[in-house]
Design a protein that fits this description.
Largest sheet of chain A: none
Distance between the termini of chain A: 91 Å
Number of strands of chain A: 0
Order of helices and strands of chain A: HHHHHHHHHHHHHHHHHHHHHHHHHH
Strand content of chain A: under 5%
Largest interface: A-B, 17 and 17 residues
Number of helices of chain B: 12
Oligomer: heterodimer
Strand content of chain B: under 5%
Number of strands of chain B: 0
Helix content of chain A: over 70%
Shape of chain A: globular
Largest sheet of chain B: none
Number of helices of chain A: 26
Radius of gyration of chain B: 20 Å
Structural class of chain A: mainly alpha
Distance between the termini of chain B: 22 Å
Order of helices and strands of chain B: HHHHHHHHHHHH
């Protein structure tokens, strides 16, 4: 290659690339920051407990620096490629949504709110992205945090949607998670007995009625009807809920599975709310006739047995329950509940040994069901009442081992671990061993995941304060939670409980 | 074929390599090529810095397309883009520098130190052609399984094809590996060098194939990891890709030294006898 050729090539290269490519470089830098923030977030998702709080903080810090580095905050610099500007805006929205969700996970609601407001104010996102931000935040709330905080998330979201012309002018293709928000908010407020719960229910019913009117015949119409049924149930308007359900069930084209599940709910309303066992039996029979081997059919069979029991036909109930226990394919929740109920009947008949055997077998066969969680408590209460110390010690130890196995770091139990801890605490209390229970949980040395250990320590503090009247031990336990789990939800809960302790006595 | 003698010759290559690794004049061409590659990797990795962007953005776009201007596509697409630059580079400049190192190895060998001096510059066109042949064999053999292995090909068959391509490369390159040494000893042109190299290999074929195969196999693990950059980026970190490429470049210093030290040591008693 001659010098002249080399110079020409270099010249061409410089001429074609003489721009500084600031837009492109900025996009690259932001993409890199986003990837690394998502890397920390993936670590949280794949191993939430193992990753611990540090990964959450690292992810938050990474997203924060990305949001802080937003080059479009003061408008797009002149001369930048519009496509690259759009890419950068999209990256920033992605980071904001993720950051808001992480704030909610970490109970930093004020920060999450600021991100929403800032995102809306910047106008750099469309309505869908805005909804994504808030839906994501609100959807996580009921699962992970205090319901009151979730309500705070749902309220502005619902307001935005209800007032949005973009939403009502749409084609009705609304995601279920989003459509459920007014219902979720009303349900949370009712469960929390919030002052404006009734207003929330009314507003939600108005919203769903408008959805039905705006998009009649579409799937959202039927989803809105179902939401209204649930809202009527929240209002204890069981007759109205049953009527609405009858209308929905009469609609053509409902899938068999949906039909069975809805008719099962209708049967339960008639049987246990409207005291109309005949109508309930009719619906339960219809569910079983549609597909005798469906989960709804087995649940309907169980409910029929409960109705038999309530009607005084104990023999028929026992026969049905035994059948549910022995039939292959019955869902674990139904089979275990049938065993639990049969144990209760046997206990009522004075056949405690048979009942005890039943409860033990239930725990062995279906250890992950709610019935299995409740069974040790019934057994403990029995031996506490009959003052059989030897058996009481034995069953309390067994119960403790069982609950600990569910809470273990390697446990396959996928249910609510807080409920397991509540059952564990109740077991200790029922046995008259609240102090031992508090000591066990306060030690915090169990081979459980961090959240369970911290939750257990909080429960221990609660036991010390409410049951054992030992505020010093409660305070010590809470201080240990604060020291051991800094920056966690449990730390904040412990601080709140400490503050409450200071003012309570 | 005396297997014991062949293995002995092959093992002796390691001893001679060890001696050559201590020689700065032998190592300097190998290090220079590695340094050049290191600079190329750095230019790619830091393309988005203000100083490099004006020149490197068009280069990256040309070699890796628009994906190359995004993260992590810029790094996951790097092994492929780099291969496009590396193949012509190693066949010309790389092979020339390796030949220079081989000539210096000859000059330090007990059977070569009395040879009359010879300048590499006039021989460079022949060296480059031999380099193209030598590298071309490897490229063609590596391309074949890539075309034959599809997503539905059983994994075992895929591995067998890759193994076969390595074997074919070793078998053919064994005939060419002595060419730089032959050029130093006898001079001549491409044709005569290839013919003499093949003749030299025939006399010690097993040890020649083992020599080339060792070099090829040494690169297999890293090449395999780098052949799935997307997986590497998703599971570990995209930044690991250039890191592993640098490791591969360092490894190449040693394997090139081993290849030509071995070839020199095996060829010189034979060539020196003529």
């Amino acid at each position: 290659m001659t010098k002249r050729t080399a110079t020409a090539l270099l010249g061409i290269l410089l001429v074609t690339g003489c721009t500084t490519h600031d837009d492109l470089r900025t996009r690259y830098r932001l993409e890199r920051m986003l990837w690394h923030a998502q890397f920390f977030e993936r670590r949280i998702r794949t191993a939430f407990f193992a990753a611990g709080e540090s990964a959450v903080h690292q992810a938050i810090a990474a997203y924060q620096s990305m949001v802080a580095a937003d080059p479009l905050r003061d408008g797009a610099p002149s001369g930048w490629d519009p496509d690259i500007i759009n890419d950068i805006a999209r990256l920033e929205v992605q980071a904001r949504i993720a950051l808001a969700q992480l704030y909610v996970t970490n109970q930093r609601y004020a920060d999450a709110g600021s991100i929403y407001d800032e995102t809306v104010r910047l106008g750099s996102t469309n309505f869908k992205d805005l909804l994504d931000t808030r839906v994501g935040a609100a959807r996580r709330s009921p699962v992970m945090v205090d319901p009151r905080d979730a309500m705070e998330q749902c309220a502005p979201l619902f307001r935005d949607v209800d007032r949005s012309d973009v939403f009502w002018a749409g084609d009705g293709a609304i995601r279920e998670s989003f459509l459920n928000i007014p219902l979720a908010r009303a349900r949370l407020e009712t469960e929390e007995r919030a002052a404006d719960a009734a207003e929330s229910v009314d507003a939600a019913i108005d919203f769903y009625t408008r959805v039905q009117r705006t998009w009649p015949g579409l799937s959202v119409d039927w989803q809105a009807r179902l939401a209204n049924v649930q809202l009527l149930m929240l209002r204890d308007e069981w007759a109205g809920a049953a009527r609405e359900l009858e209308v929905i069930l009469s609609a053509p084209g409902l899938r068999t599975l949906t039909l069975s599940n809805l008719e099962f709910v209708l049967g339960e309303i008639y049987g246990f709310r409207l005291n109309d066992p005949a109508a309930a039996r009719r619906h339960f029979e219809s569910v079983r006739a549609r597909d005798a081997r469906s989960a709804a059919a087995y649940a309907a069979e169980y409910d029929t047995a409960v109705l038999d029991l309530a009607g005084g036909d104990e023999a028929a109930a026992m026969t049905s329950l035994r059948k549910l226990e022995t039939t292959a394919g019955v869902p674990a929740a139904v089979a275990s509940r049938a065993m639990f109920t049969r144990g209760h009947i046997l206990d009522g008949r004075g056949q405690w040994d048979d009942a005890y055997a039943m409860y033990r077998r239930l725990g062995q066969l279906y250890p992950f069901t709610n019935a299995a969680l409740e069974a040790p408590l019934v057994v403990t209460r029995h031996y506490a009442t009959t003052r059989n110390r030897e058996m009481l010690d034995l069953v309390v130890k067994r119960a403790r081992d069982y609950y600990a196995s569910l809470l273990g770091r390697n446990s396959n139990y996928a249910g609510n671990r807080a409920a397991v801890q509540t059952a564990l605490v109740e077991n200790f209390v029922a046995a008259g061993e609240a102090a031992a229970g508090a000591k066990f949980l306060a030690a915090g040395d169990q081979p459980w995941d961090d959240a369970s250990i911290a939750g257990g320590m909080l429960k221990a503090a609660d036991l010390y304060h409410h049951t054992l009247n030992d505020d010093i031990a409660a305070r010590t336990t809470l201080e240990r939670v604060i020291a051991r789990f800094p920056g966690s939800r449990e730390e904040r809960a412990a601080r709140q409980q400490l503050a409450a302790l200071a003012t309570s006595r | 074929m005396n297997v014991e003698r062949s293995v002995g010759r092959y093992l002796k290559a390691f001893v001679y390599t060890r001696a050559m690794l201590m020689s700065p004049s032998v190592m300097s061409p190998l290090l220079a090529f590695a340094l050049l590659q290191g600079i190329l990797v750095s230019l790619w990795v830091f393309f988005a810095t203000p100083a490099l962007a004006p020149v490197m953005v068009p280069v990256v776009r040309a070699l890796a397309g628009e994906t190359g201007l995004h993260y992590p596509g810029h790094l996951t697409g790097f092994p492929d883009a780099y291969r496009r630059v590396y193949v012509p580079l190693v066949a010309t400049l790389g092979f020339s520098l390796w030949t220079l190192a081989a000539w210096r190895m000859v000059d330090r060998h007990r059977n070569g130190r009395d040879l009359p001096a010879r300048s590499l510059a006039p021989m460079l066109p022949h060296v480059v052609v031999i380099g193209v042949l030598f590298v071309g064999v490897g490229v063609i053999a590596a391309e074949l399984p890539e075309h034959l292995v599809g997503p539905k090909t059983p994994a075992m068959l895929g591995r067998l094809l890759i193994g076969a391509s390595l074997a074919v490369t070793a078998v053919v390159q064994a005939f060419l590996v002595y060419a730089p040494v032959v050029l130093r000893v006898h001079g001549g042109n491409v044709w005569s060098a290839v013919v003499r190299s093949a003749a030299c290999a025939r006399g010690r074929y097993l040890s020649s194939v083992l020599l080339v195969a060792t070099v090829l196999v040494a690169h297999v693990p890293l090449d395999h990891i780098l052949s799935n950059p997307d997986k590497l980026a998703a599971r570990v970190n995209p930044e690991l890709i250039p890191g592993l490429m640098l490791v591969s470049i360092v490894l190449e210093i040693f394997t090139a030294c081993f290849l030509f030290a071995g070839a020199t040591d095996m060829a010189l008693p034979h060539e020196g006898a003529r």
